[in-house]
From TrEMBL:
Signal peptide span: none
EC number: 1.1.1.94
Cytoplasm found in the keyword field: yes
Pathway listed: Membrane lipid metabolism; glycerophospholipid metabolism
Gene name of this polypeptide: gpsA
Protein name: Glycerol-3-phosphate dehydrogenase [NAD(P)+]
Limits of the Glycerol-3-phosphate dehydrogenase NAD-dependent N-terminal domain: 3-150
Gene Ontology molecular function, alphabetical: glycerol-3-phosphate dehydrogenase (NAD+) activity; glycerol-3-phosphate dehydrogenase (NADP+) activity; NAD binding
Keyword Metal-binding recorded: no
Length: 320
């Protein structure tokens, strides 16, 4: 049962490294032939994950057809690019076990990664691997625990296959909860970063995280998620990591908005497009999501960070 990791960004590279430390049949695929040749020669991905060395057993390839011969395929490209990628390569990905390793809601369709796979390639077993983990930690072999969600029949073999001595996977059949927890926490991480960047303080950040978790629960449960999943690694766990670490790109992006400093526009910040997508979803389903709406309004330049915080704090008083 071989594994291919499609997408050699920071996270795809980290997953490929840790998996190929434990097994010999892992391929890391990237679309850029020049980048692949460089990785094959240097045995590292200096552009996306500097310092992490590739195990000898890891195959790096730009041949998508060959990579898609694997039974299990990890999709590690940004959420907003996933649907087009699946459409373009549907015949290669037919009938496979496809594990989304991205976090977000597609702005065009309002679908999370599992739903995007299911709607594009219905013959595939659509799963998601998500939870609190920085690529650098995974590549360094530091202890990490993640949630694997998907159809019951494929979960146990997949859990076995993707767990390593440092990477502990828990399974759930609640794909809705797992994909929404991972997507929505990024928006709250932007808000947390903005609160810290603007100088509102640690207490304000704790309020944003907690009330952010309340609105994540409101939307996700309305869409079918289980509260237990949201309280687990893919929800609360990842919210805690991302809202409190300057290593998070979503947090740092929010920090730059709050502090009015520059941010590298080439970095993947999933929460930015997801804020707008989730704000649209919340409106459609009649769910109150004031923090997500505030992030979407800041990004659309309808509000400043200070105006957003003033509006949030002045909302009508109510029961918790
Ligand atoms: N970094 C992390 O610590 C973690 C990231 N994640 C999630 O993983 C996902 C990917 O993030 P990450 O790896 O960090 O992002 P990066 O920005 O490091 O890399 C993105 C990768 O996706 C590739 N890519 C983009 N568009 C396409 C496309 N249309 N076809 C093929 N490949 C494409 C890029 O290729 P190219 O270089 O050619 O542009 C690049 O290799 C995100 O959803 C993120 O939330 C989850 C947990 C941890
Ligand atoms: O999802 C992550 C941690 O679990 C990575 O966070 P960022 O995408 O914000 O860097």
């Amino acid at each position: 049962m071989s594994i291919s990791v499609l997408g050699a960004g920071a996270f795809g590279t980290a997953l490929a490294i840790t998996l190929s430390n434990a097994r010999t049949d892992v391929t890391l695929w990237a679309r850029d032939e020049v980048a692949v040749k460089t990785m094959q020669t240097t045995r590292m991905n200096a552009a996306r994950l500097p310092k992490a060395r590739f195990p000898k057993t890891l195959t790096v390839s730009s041949d998508l057809e060959a990579a898609c011969q694997a039974e299990t395929i990890l999709l590690v490209i940004p959420t907003q690019k996933l649907a087009a990628f699946l459409h373009s390569h549907a015949t290669l990905l037919d009938v496979k076990t496809l594990v989304a390793c991205c976090k977000g809601v597609d702005l065009a369709t309002g679908l999370g990664p599992v739903q995007t796979i299911a709607s594009t390639i219905p013959s595939a077993q659509a799963c998601i691997l998500t939870g609190p983990s920085f690529a650098v930690d995974i590549a360094a072999g530091l202890p990490t625990a993640l949630t694997l969600a998907g159809p019951k029949n494929c979960l146990e073999p997949l859990q076995e296959m993707l767990s390593t001595p440092a990477l502990r996977l828990y399974w759930t059949t609640d794909t809705v909860g797992a994909e929404l927890g991972g997507a929505l926490k990024n928006v709250i991480a932007i808000a947390s970063g903005a609160a810290i960047g603007a100088g509102f303080g640690e207490s304000a950040r704790a309020a944003v995280m907690t009330r952010g978790y309340a609105e994540i629960q409101r939307l996700a449960i309305a869409l079918g998620a289980k509260p237990k999943t949201l309280a687990g690694l893919s929800g609360f766990g990842d919210l805690a990591l991302t809202c409190t670490s300057a290593r998070s790109r979503n947090f740092s992006f929010g920090f730059a908005l709050g502090a009015k400093t520059e941010f590298d526009s080439g970095l993947t910040v999933e929460g930015a497009k997801t804020a707008e997508a989730v704000s649209n979803l919340a409106k459609k389903h009649g769910i109150d999501m004031p923090i997500t709406n505030a992030v979407a309004a800041i990004l659309a330049q309808r509000l400043t960070v200070s105006q957003a915080m003033e509006a949030l704090i002045a909302r009508p008083l109510k029961e918790e």
